[in-house]
Structure formats: structure tokens, C-alpha cells
Amino acid sequence: QITLKESGPSLVKPTQTLTLTCTFSGFSLTTAAVGVGWIRQPPGKALEWLALIYGDDDKRYSPSLRTRLTVTKDTSNNQVVLTMTNMDPVDTATYYCAHRRERYFDYWGLGTLVTVSS
Amino acid sequence: EIVLTQSPDFQSVTPKEQVTITCRASQSIGSTLHWYQQKPDQSPKLLIKYGSQSISGVPSRFSGSVSGTDFTLTINGLEPEDAATYYCHQSSSLPLTFGGGTKVEIK
Predict the structure, then answer these.
(1) Looking at CA atoms only, how far is residue A28 from chain B in angstroms?
(2) Per residue in B32-72, pLDDT tens?
(3) B73, B75, B79, B80 alpha-carbon torsion, rounded to 10°
(4) Is A104 within 8 Å of B91 when comparing Cβ atoms?
(5) Taking residues A42-61, what's their average pLDDT?
(6) CA proximity to A49, closest of B64, B90, B47
(7) What's the mean per-residue pLDDT of chain A?
(8) How does DSSP assign B34-54, residue by residue?
(9) Closest partner residue to A109 among B43, B49, B100, by Cβ?
(10) B31 to chain A nearest CA, in Å?
């Protein structure tokens, strides 16, 4: 059974760097066929894709956030880490990680709400 | 970037009625369009993949269809537990994008 869980700070200050960890089980992130994505959702708004990392370490980013995002994987600990620099109040959102099979996300974590405020 | 336009934004429906939600892509995406259901305070759940392919464990009242760049999610016989926001998502090209969502309320 595939599960994912996001963890990280619930509150960050403007200009700080956010680091979120996705800890997963039920699959190995070691082949190009499997990926983990990050998606966020501001309160009351739609979903927005942020980043994607595959088991072969191929990485893709949203062009609008490319300069602020870094995604890495720790295969031995079954984790994927997302860092986002220069946080702003508009980045307040629930951040999800999700398992990517073929070309869709089939399992999602519960999400973690990150508030950006001084 | 491929833009997905969902309609309607909101729909209030009586139980057992049929619900139809449309997602229009700004350019051709083949069948790489997927549907998700998100209930309040929950994460999205995959309902339909590749436009019309069913997902194990999803009730058969949910179905999808494709006509060119227009994709349709149909709920045949709405149940009270179907109250949720529904999103379409394209994976034809990067950046991956989602529609704006359609909120379905039960009358």
C-alpha cells in the first residue's frame, strides 16, 4: 500500500526558506517510471503544480517558480525534500506530495498547511 | 502552458440527478487528462485517468469522455457523499496544469 506524508514548519516568515519533507512507503523511488510530485493549494483556491522528481533523478519545475524551487530525493530513507526560497505571504497554501504513476498522480499525502507571516 | 477551463464553477444538484462537468484544454492534449475529487479538508482523489479510464475502487457512477479538446466528467445518479470540488489535470506537456475546479453541492 502506497502512502505519503508531508512534514515541515506550519509557519514561516517572509523571505525565509521553506523546507518540506515527503516521507513515503509502498514504493521505491529508484526507476524512471516512478516519480513524486509537489502540488500546492492556497486556501479556497485551485491546485498548482510545483515540481516533480523521478527515480532516475530527473527533475522538473514549474517555470513560474523555477528560480525558487529545489527538489531532491533520499532513496535510502524514502524521502523527497522540497525547498522554496524567499517565501512570501502569497505562498501560504497547503502543500501536497503525490506519487506519480505513468502520467498521473494516483496517491496523495494529506497535505501540510504552511502560513507565511511575520 | 496549457490552460484548462472548467465549467461550471459551481453546481447545486438534487440527489440521484446526473451531473456533467466540462474541462476544455487550450490546445490538443490527446487523452492525457485526469479527473480528481476533493472533499473539504481532504486531499485530491483520482477518479478517472486518460480521459475515460476507470480507477479501481471508484464507483461506477463516475465516468469520463473525450471529444477533441473537450473532456467531460459525468456522475450518473448523484449521491450525498459526492459533494466535493472536482478538478481536471493535464499531463500532456510541462508545466503540468489543473483546471480551476467545479464545486458540486447537494440540494
Answers:
(1) 21
(2) 999 999 999 999 999 999 999 999 999 999 999 999 999 99
(3) 30
(4) yes
(5) 97
(6) B90
(7) 97
(8) EEEEE-TTS--EEEEETTTEE
(9) B43
(10) 11
Could you tell me the pLDDT band of residue B90, with boundaries at 50, 70 and 90? very high
Strand, helix or coil for residue A58:
coil
Instruction: Yes or no: say if B4 and B99 are a contact pair by the CB < 8 Å rule.
Output: yes
The reply to whether A1 touches chain B by the CB within 8 Å rule is no
Q: How far is A64 from chain B (nearest CA, A)?
A: 9
A-B contacts at Cβ under 8 angstroms: 50
Contacts of A48 in chain B (CB under 8 A): 98
Share of residues in chain A with pLDDT > 70 (%): 100
Q: How many whole angstroms separate alpha carbon A2 and alpha carbon B1?
A: 31
Cβ contact, residue pair A104, B34, below 8 Å: yes
User: Which of B96, B97, B102 is the best residue to mutate to test the A interface, defined by the most A CB atoms within 10 Å of its own CB?
Assistant: B96
Phi, psi of A66 (to 5 degrees): -50, -40
Grid cell 497547503 — which residue? A94
Length of chain A: 118
Query: Is A96:B43 a contact under the CB 8 Å cutoff?
Result: yes
pLDDT for position B23: 98
Element holding A95 (H helix, E strand): strand A93-101
When pLDDT is cut at 50, 70 and 90, the band that residue A116 belongs to is very high
B87 closest CB neighbour out of A46, A52, A106 = A46
Would you call B44 and A109 a contact, using CB atoms and an 8 Å cutoff? no
